[in-house]
UniProtKB/TrEMBL annotation:
Keywords: Membrane, Transmembrane, Transmembrane helix. It is a multi-pass membrane protein. SUPFAM superfamilies: MFS general substrate transporter. The keyword GTP-binding does not apply. One of its GO terms (molecular function) is transmembrane transporter activity. This is Major facilitator superfamily protein. It is found in: Membrane. InterPro entries: FLVCR1-2_SLC49-like, MFS, MFS_trans_sf.
Length: 456
């Protein structure tokens, strides 16, 4: 497959006449970046709330583990049908309008979730309210998640773009970090779940207020030559995306890699509690996972800006991720020293989470001048599909606990109602095997032509 047809020579000549000779960046871009980051943190915090305390959610709302998993699956499922409409709106109306829609929808959803704590409503009705609020936050994600790459491209110079993009996307993971660590601390027992929901509203409302300070979607003058270049019509862009071999490889490879991240983040408590790890330990593991991942994103973004070697960096990250997932599975299943488990989670996060911002940048390099939100949205949709499949399939691969595992499990500790508990050894090994296959596929198939960079 060829990547896609170049713009006609006449179009290029017309564009060159309009391109300014000097490019300026504006200080307010850092405030806008902060607002984008806060929106990412708030939305991700809401997404991950119940994953480290899944057993307490089961008891509070009188539902099954599968029902609690749907709080996370909701984000992934909503992304699939709403990606194209939201990316079209972002490209059509601009970053500012996309932020307004996403941030305030997220705030409204977080407020609705609080009504699920009303004791005058039965447990089943309260869970329905929680799901409605979660749906709105998931819908908000389709705007919030696709803005960073487009925002970084428009407001930052080519020397700062990868770093800005890594900071913005890394903020999403930082929100997961905060949720992973704080949820078990705030909710030692199910009676504290209302407090967790109330606290979730604060960053959502704050992001909504600060968002009003974004005055425009684009700077008064372009930040670089590539911004001026003509972009493709929406429908034509979709056709040309799938004519690009390099983009299709990223669609598959990055989709599966981030899908593994989504599955691990969603199922981590259910994966670890059969081996004797309590909720606080699970939260600390997720904290190391996301914290190291955020650091890895910053470091990889810095080196990507300095060296320009996005493809080489991505291949290093894929290779290291394969090794990291193997180590993680072995350490959890064999119940090694707890600090080694922390190290394994940190290692997986450090090398796998940076794949997201690096892959986003590579996508734009491969398919330029297709609109940024469209290219990123389709790529993210792939990771959500893969995540859904893994979250649905992995529990079916689990087996019943043996007598020894029944003695050490912490899943049902201090719980009145009996819940179904599974051993996740096979899913952990399966996830590692998938990453190895994806790495081999990526090395054999991917080659980037850096089309966007040629315009600078």
């Amino acid at each position: 497959m060829d990547d896609y047809e170049q713009l006609s020579q006449s179009d290029n000549e017309e564009i060159d006449n309009l391109i300014p000779k000097v490019y300026i960046t504006y200080k307010r871009r850092w405030f806008y970046l902060f607002v984008v980051c806060l929106a990412q943190i708030s939305n991700a915090f809401i997404w991950i709330n119940f994953s480290p305390i899944a057993n307490l959610g089961v008891e509070y709302y009188k539902v099954s583990y599968n029902a609690i998993n749907w709080l996370s699956l909701m984000y992934m499922i909503v992304t699939i049908p709403f990606t194209l409409p939201s990316t079209w709106l972002i490209d059509k109306l601009g970053v500012r309008a996309g932020m307004y829609i996403g941030v305030w929808m997220n705030a409204i959803g977080s407020i609705i979730r609080c009504f699920s704590t009303l004791t005058v409503i039965d447990a089943q009705g309260r869970f329905v309210i929680l799901m409605i609020g979660q749906f709105l936050c998931a819908l908000a994600q389709t705007f919030i998640l696709f803005i960073p790459t487009k925002f970084s491209f428009i407001w930052f110079s080519e020397k700062q773009r990868s770093l800005a993009n890594s900071i913005a996307i890394g903020s999403n993971f930082f929100g997961i970090l905060i949720g992973s660590i704080l949820s078990p601390i705030i909710v030692p027992d199910m009676s504290k779940i209302p407090l967790l929901l109330y606290l979730s509203v604060i960053p959502a409302i704050l992001a909504g207020i600060l968002c009003l300070g974004i005055r425009s979607s684009q700077p008064p003058t372009p930040s670089c030559k590539a911004v001026v270049h003509t972009q493709q019509p929406f429908i034509l862009s979709l056709k040309r995306l799938y004519r690009s071999k390099s983009y299709v490889v990223l669609f598959i490879g990055c989709g599966i890699a981030i899908g593994c991240f989504n599955a691990l983040s969603t199922l981590v408590q259910q994966m670890m509690c059969p081996f004797g790890y309590d909720n606080v330990t699970v939260g600390i593991c997720l904290g190391w996972f996301i914290g190291a991942g955020s650091l890895g994103s910053l470091i990889s973004g810095y080196f990507a800006d300095k060296t320009g070697k996005l493809e080489e960096i991505s291949k290093i990250l894929y290779t290291a991720s394969s090794v990291a997932y193997i180590i993680l599975g072995l350490f959890i299943i064999n119940r090694v020293w707890r600090y080694l488990v922390y190290f394994a989670f940190a290692f997986v996060g450090f090398v796998s989470i940076p794949l997201s911002p690096i892959s986003m940048d590579l996508s734009l390099e491969c398919v330029y001048p297709i609109p940024e939100a469209t290219a990123i949205g389709i790529n993210v949709m792939s990771s959500q599909i893969m995540g859904i499949l893994m979250v649905v399939i992995f529990p079916k691969l689990g087996r019943q606990l043996n007598e020894y595992e029944m003695l050490i499990e912490t899943c049902s500790k201090d719980m009145k109602d009996k819940i179904a508990i599974l051993n996740y050894s096979i899913p952990l090994y399966t996830m590692a095997f998938i990453m190895v296959i994806v790495t081999l596929f990526y090395f054999a198939s991917f080659k980037c032509k850096y089309k966007r960079r040629r315009q600078h």
